[in-house]
Design brief:
The chain has 358 residues and is α/β, with parallel strands linked by helices. The protein contains 13 helices and 13 strands. Helix 7 crosses helix 12.
Length: 358
């Protein structure tokens, strides 16, 4: 291999390069932006390297703002040139720490660092379980994890599963954290009911997530229909974007009092304006939207998958995945009890303050 000489930075401000696919709508992307922003506030030089999709500045939640961003495009299949180009960026920035987000970023970053004479340490974080992978993909991830100074995932359940399934050789747990000052019961009003033309007495069930098959918005819409069949004066507000947005919007148009809002720029305001938060995914690591809703003191209904049971504990109602009937029962239970909603909401915020702050 051609090795690219790397010299340590002469200054005192560490440079952190965060490597990820892109800044599409999703929790991992928001975490990367949040991490870089916090690092810069702490006096570090944090930068983003994207390899599948260039940065856009059209959506507030996913706008990199003043964070320096470099796009190093990856070709289809195994891109043998990407590590060389990454290594050149690491060298030109005099990077002190490389933080790779997901197994693909970890593999290419690990190869790139092998090209440097004096490579900086690699930190590898997995936010979700990798998609269906081959034996070669697992081998590549294990190889990269052995070359990382630290390997972690965002939930204990995910850490255990990654090791047991052969993707990683070791894995610590570093939970996601949320800004409990921004995400709190107090804040500027969002006026969701006014925007949707709903009476103030309407009870709003809210959902904020990437619109994709794993998040099971179809189950939520079906469950909500079961609830409204027995109780009037309710609405379902679905916020987010993703590959299933058109399908979700179509289902919403054919359902009563279901609204698909697309991307909501003020996530905290949206969460403050709802009465119940529902997340009914097939699989999760440590979903940011769930933590943000808990921080806003909202009662939770969620599926007992991935890291969710450990996050929610006894601060919400958990059901089996892909069971709209059970989901409807849990939502209905909260609808009929102001006391239970208040109790679970207050407990949820306490739990975030104790264990899931930035």
């Amino acid at each position: 291999m051609t090795r690219i000489k790397h010299r340590p930075r002469s200054g005192t401000k560490p440079t952190i390069a965060i490597v990820l696919q892109g800044l599409q709508v999703g929790g991992m992307e928001r975490c990367a932006i949040q991490l870089a922003t916090c690092a810069i506030s702490a006096g570090h030089d944090a930068r983003l390297i994207l390899y599948d999709a260039p940065s856009t500045r059209s959506e507030a939640e996913y706008d990199s703002g003043d964070i320096p961003v470099t796009f190093v495009p990856r070709t289809h299949g195994i891109d043998c040139t990407l590590p060389v180009r990454l290594a050149r960026v690491f060298r030109s920035w005099n990077v002190d720490i490389v933080h790779a987000r997901n197994n693909v970023a970890g593999f290419y970053s690990a190869v790139a660092l092998r090209l440097l004479h004096d490579p900086p340490p690699l930190v590898l974080t997995l936010d979700t379980f990798p998609g269906p992978g081959t034996a070669k993909a697992r081998l590549a991830s294990r190889w990269a994890s052995r070359r990382a100074t630290n390997v972690s995932s965002v939930s204990a359940e995910l850490s255990n599963r990654l090791v047991q399934s052969g993707w990683l050789t070791q894995c610590d747990t570093v939970w996601n954290g949320v800004d409990t000052r921004s995400f709190s019961p107090q804040g500027p009003p969002y006026k969701l009911k006014e925007r949707l033309g709903l009476p103030e007495t309407t009870m709003v069930v809210g959902h904020l997530a990437r619109l994709e098959t794993n998040k099971r918005q179809c189950d939520l819409i079906e469950a909500f229909g079961r609830v409204t069949a027995a109780k009037n004066g309710m609405a379902l507000a679905i916020a987010g974007d993703g590959p299933d947005r058109e399908e979700t919007e179509t289902a919403a148009r054919h359902a009563k009092n279901v609204f698909s809002l697309g991307i909501v720029h003020d996530a905290a305001g949206f969460l403050r304006s709802i009465d119940i938060f529902v997340l009914c995914s097939d699989d999760e690591g440590c979903p940011r939207a769930l933590l943000e809703a808990m921080a806003c003191e909202k009662p939770i209904v969620a599926t007992a998958v991935g890291g969710i049971p450990e996050i929610v504990g006894d601060c919400g109602l958990l059901v089996l995945p892909r069971r709209p009937d059970l989901l409807a029962q849990a939502i209905r239970k909260l609808c009929y009890s102001n006391e239970l909603r208040g109790q679970l909401g207050r407990a949820a915020r306490r739990r975030v303050l104790e264990s899931f702050t930035l």
